[in-house]
Amino acid sequence: xxxxxxxxxxxxxxxKASSLIIPGSQEEGGVLQRIPVKDGTRIHLIPVEExxxxxxxxxxxxxFTKSGQYVKEQTMKYFESHLPEKxxxxxxxxxxxxxxxxxxIELFGKExxxxxxxxxxxxxxxxxxxxxxxxxxxx
Length: 139
Fold this sequence. Notes:
Blueprint: H1 2-18, E1 21-22, E2 31-32, E3 34-39, E4 42-47, E5 51-57, E6 60-65, E7 68-72, H2 76-82, E8 88-92, E9 95-98, E10 102-107, E11 113-117, E12 122-125, H3 127-137
Antiparallel strand pairs: 1-2, 3-4, 5-6, 5-9, 6-7, 8-9, 10-11, 11-12
């Protein structure tokens, strides 16, 4: 009986996870609406709109939201290609930020830039990331 329940919950999770990408499959470059994150026995569904930024840590990422931090076994490359392009920018090999969370961009050193978010966090932007950010923000 327990195995049947486990099978059903796994099946439900797979169906649910596949419905979190629109309009096509991952291979077709679909865009994420929500991000499922497993936390022990619970699965959190984080709406993309609640993301402040994502930080890389090896083959894992940490998703930062207003409600907390969530660790997910996924690559930055995956999120870079599956998050809405107009709303998220990869500013550094370590960071993808939500454009709507930017408070200001500051010169930091000779050719370095720091992006300050509305929640007070400052993140370093690489030269390439700064150029992409300027392009996306139409500065």
